[in-house]
Automatic annotation (TrEMBL):
Its cofactor is Mg(2+). SUPFAM superfamilies: Enzyme I of the PEP:sugar phosphotransferase system HPr-binding (sub)domain (SSF47831), HPr-like (SSF55594), Phoshotransferase/anion transport protein (SSF55804), Phosphoenolpyruvate/pyruvate domain (SSF51621), Phosphohistidine domain (SSF52009). The lineage of its organism: Bacteria, Pseudomonadati, Pseudomonadota, Betaproteobacteria, Burkholderiales. This is phosphoenolpyruvate--protein phosphotransferase. Residues 3-143 form the PTS EIIA type-2 domain. It comes from Paraburkholderia rhynchosiae. It holds the Pfam family PTS_EIIA_2. Keywords: Cytoplasm, Kinase, Magnesium, Metal-binding, Phosphoprotein, Phosphotransferase system, Sugar transport, Transferase, Transport. Belongs to the PEP-utilizing enzyme family. It is found in: Cytoplasm.
Length: 835
């Protein structure tokens, strides 16, 4: 591999007036040498708003945003040597600024060398004082003796038994799934290894896994040796793959939240100070700012008797583990299983062998127990913070959160409590997940932090709590005067401070209006979705299990517009039997109580994989064997499911729907097989329909309508196929907008084709749960909208406040728009007219 750093990219004895100036100088070195487009310098600044790039001990590593990688011509590094230093973050001064432009992972070895240098003050000082650029080039490229310890040369070989797989997680490997990998690996005696390119990790060690930097679609090699190596390897692979669907579901839900959240139409008229960060929790709040300044940890080195110190550390770790178990249970009960799992992953960090070994080594060297633990945890956290992926880098906050809990049990006096006694908007350097989980929504009107990111566990908890939040607002945020009048628009990530009395009054009116709208929507959720002129739309819920039906109906659902059955097949070792499926479908029929119930047959493939089916790897699974294509090829899966569905149909009404249909022949085969199964069981006839998710199904809707009883349009997949955009692609996903006029035209073509044969049309994709999208869909003539239960009240409220003719006019205008932005602009100009 060629060297990433050359002497021409080192500027010795430089001076910088600010962090901004330092980044500009380093970026100009890269641009002048042809490594980056000049616009990438803005991306370097953008990263600083999202995360702190100070690595430690005078070293900073500015690097750009992942979505701007197209501005990198080739991977390279530039170094700014600043003997006098420049303030980087909260009093920390940088003497070496290492600017990184990385197209992939070629720079990982360099980051590893930097991390080692940070622990060697003498070598680092020599680099700051060096007068020959080649001294820095040799140190960072790994020349000479250092090369022997580089990641590439030191990567251990795979064990004899090995398998390969592609990591099908949209956000790569992060703490939640990694903790499940660890739990699986620890069940076996065999030694296990996970390799990502030149980096290898022990899957029994959570931090080691996170340091792999395994991003979406990473090619991993799993290997094992020992008495139960084959079983261990099979189990680990199964665990990794079984989590894929869950990770995609979470990513889809997060995308839907981002697309639906619209900034509040309020901005101050009079002068006010605005802090612009990144939205971490939608909402609008008004109140006094309460600034919490976190004291820097100053853990003194107080050596003691080693055996006693070891016992103290073991006891502190045990107490912390018990504390995290309790917190995980309490958080699960209050907020949900996903949020509780955050602290389950925290607990696993206590078992990190490298962390414990480093703390033990420092203890044996004669250092105090608290100091040794703090140093070991900080070194691990710095390595995590240095990872280029912001999601993985944010796990450094999790590790520091856990480490502070241990220090508390070792008798250290930690930072002040962040809890509020009176209602206020909390301002802080950062909030740990523990801090956030303990916030009281009754007095926490919202919070803003200097650092952090939208994918952090802190942001996840904020959204669940319903607390407006903005992160990455910049260091100047801490200059806000305590008690200042403030307005927080969490949806746009903006905080306004020093707001005038007149603007505060305007903000209160806006807040009251928003609250009244939400209350009306909640109070009227049981009313039908009838427009002002009497047109009624059915409202369904998208669910996966019978126990979700009650909540859906309580939120105003008229029935179930989509039951996803693939979750019966996931996270298990073999396919569910016919009897197992029948029991589930029967309970679904009972829970629905005669209401509309549409059950979709198995939709596996694409973004959902099932390990035990042993499906061949496909280079583009979204265009491969998935949905109905798979079922027709696997009657061993399809026939038992159809039998279970028809048996359940004897207990009550249900409709059967086939996913991912692209040709008339596929539909004919499915219909014929379903009729054969029905006749064998002497079951009642039920409506049989198809999902419209492909352009071919939409274009041939009139032909399909002559065959099937109904359509349900899946706007998520239809969007990615119409726009040729992978909705999981890290750079292109933002383009996968279902409000695009091209997608809307396909939906209109589907409705027109169905009407020629008087067939029913529903929509069960994410667009149905967006109030603007629902309004346009109603105007296009669909019969039903099915969505997440929590979206039902707002959608019903929007439709009940509209006239059908106005919605039809809105739909016509949307079809004539040129892009998504133009469609969204109709939100203000058309919906008011529809009321």
């Amino acid at each position: 591999m060629p060297s990433l750093l050359t002497a021409e990219l080192v500027r010795l004895n430089a001076r910088a007036t600010s962090k901004h100036d330092a980044i500009v100088q380093a970026g100009e070195l890269l641009a002048a040498a042809g490594y980056i487009e000049p616009a990438y310098v803005d991306s370097l600044h953008g990263r600083e708003k999202v995360s702190n790039t100070y690595l430690g001990n005078g070293v900073a590593i500015p690097h750009g945003m992942q979505e701007d990688r197209h501005l990198i011509r080739r991977t390279g590094v530039a170094v700014l040597q600043l003997p006098e230093g420049v303030e980087w973050h909260d009093g920390e001064r940088a003497n070496l600024v290492v600017a990184i432009a990385a197209q992939s992972d070629e720079h990982i070895a360099l980051l590893q060398r930097l991390t080692r240098l940070i622990g060697d003050s003498e070598k680092l000082r020599a680099l700051v004082d060096a007068r020959d650029p080649n001294a820095l080039v040799a140190a960072l490229n790994g020349a000479g003796a250092d090369a022997a310890t580089s990641v590439i040369e030191s990567t251990p070989a795979d064990f004899e038994q090995r398998v390969e797989l592609v990591l099908d997680y949209p956000h790569g490997l992060h703490a939640r799934p990694a903790s499940t990998w660890v739990a699986t690996a620890k069940r076996y005696q065999a030694a296990l290894r996970v390799r990502n390119g030149k980096l290898a990790a022990d899957p029994k060690n959570l931090v080691s896994l996170l340091q792999l930097g395994a991003t979406a679609n990473a090619h991993l090699v799993l290997s094992a040796q020992g008495v139960d190596a084959a079983d261990a390897l099979t189990a680990l692979k199964r665990t990794i793959q079984a989590l894929s669907a869950e990770e995609h579901e979470r990513a889809a839900a997060a995308r839907a939240r981002r697309q639906k959240a619209q900034p509040v139409s309020w901005t101050p008229v009079d002068p006010a100070t605005m802090f612009e960060g990144v939205s971490a929790g939608p909402g609008f709040s008004i109140g006094q700012a309460r600034v919490m300044r976190t004291a820097q940890l100053d853990v003194q080195d107080r050596p003691g008797e080693t055996v006693e110190a070891t016992h103290r550390l073991e006891e502190a770790l045990r107490k912390t583990a018990d504390e995290l178990d309790t917190l995980a249970r309490d958080t699960t009960a209050r907020l949900g299983a996903e949020e509780g799992a955050i602290f389950g992953a925290h607990r696993e960090l206590l078992n990190d062998t490298e962390l414990l070994a480093e703390a033990a080594r420092l203890l044996l060297d004669g250092h105090g127990v608290a100091w040794s633990w703090h140093q070991a945890a900080e070194r691990q956290a710095e390595r995590l913070a240095a990872l280029p992926d912001p999601l993985l880098a944010s796990r450094a906050t999790d590790l520091r959160d856990v480490a502070r809990r241990v220090l508390k049990h070792l008798g250290e006096n930690l930072a002040a409590d962040t809890r509020l006694n009176t209602p206020a908007i909390l301002i802080a350097e950062d909030l740990t997940p523990s801090d956030t989980a303990m916030l009281d929504p009754a007095v926490t009107l919202g919070f803003c932090t200097v650092s952090g990111g939208p994918t952090s566990h802190t942001a996840i908890l904020a959204r669940t709590l319903g607390v407006p939040a903005a992160v990455a607002c910049g260091a100047a945020l801490l200059d806000v005067a305590d008690g200042s009048a403030a307005v927080l628009d969490g949806t746009s990530g903006r905080l306004y401070v020093g707001v005038s009395a007149q603007d505060l009054e305007r903000a209160r009116r806006t807040q009251l209006q928003l609250a009244e709208e939400a209350q009306r929507a909640a109070a009227n959720r049981a009313l039908p979705a009838a427009t002002l002129d009497g047109h009624v739309l059915e409202i369904g819920a998208n669910i996966t299990r019978p126990d979700q039906v009650r909540d859906a109906i309580a939120n105003g659902a008229d029935g179930v517009g989509l039951m996803r059955t693939e979750f019966l097949f996931l996270e298990r070792h073999d396919a569910p039997s016919e009897d197992e499926q029948y029991d589930c479908y029967r309970r679904m029929v009972e829970a629905s109580g005669g209401r509309h119930l549409i059950i979709r047959t198995l939709d596996i493939g694409g973004d959902k994989q099932v390990p035990y089916l042993n499906l061949p790897h496909e280079s583009n699974p979204f265009l491969g064997v998935r949905g109905l294509r798979l079922c027709l090829r696997r009657p061993d899966l399809f026939v038992p499911q159809l039998r279970a569905l028809y048996r359940a149909a004897k207990d009550g009404p249900l409709w059967i729907m086939f996913p991912m249909v692209s040709t008339l022949d596929e539909a004919r085969q499915a219909l014929a097989l379903a009729e054969t199964v029905r006749a064998e069981l002497d079951a009642p006839k039920v409506p049989l329909g198809i999902m419209v998710e492909t352009p071919s199904a939409a274009a041939f809707a009139d032909h399909f309508a002559a065959l099937v009883d109904f359509f349900s349009i899946g706007t998520n997949d239809l969007t990615q196929y119409v726009l040729a955009v992978d909705r999981e692609h890290p750079e292109l996903a933002r383009m996968a907008e279902s409000l695009h006029p091209a997608v809307l035209r396909m939906i209109k073509q589907t409705v027109d084709g169905a009407r020629r044969h008087r067939k029913w049309v529903g929509v069960c994709g994410g667009l149905a749960g967006d109030p603007l999208g629902a309004s346009i869909l109603a105007g296009l003539g669909v019969d039903e909208l099915s969505m997440s239960s929590r979206d039902i009240p707002a959608v019903k409220s929007r439709l009940r406040a509209s006239r059908l003719d106005a919605l039809q006019a809105l739909a016509r205008r949307a079809l004539d728009c040129e892009d998504v932005d133009a469609v969204r602009a109709l939100e203000t100009t058309e919906i008011k007219a529809a009321a």
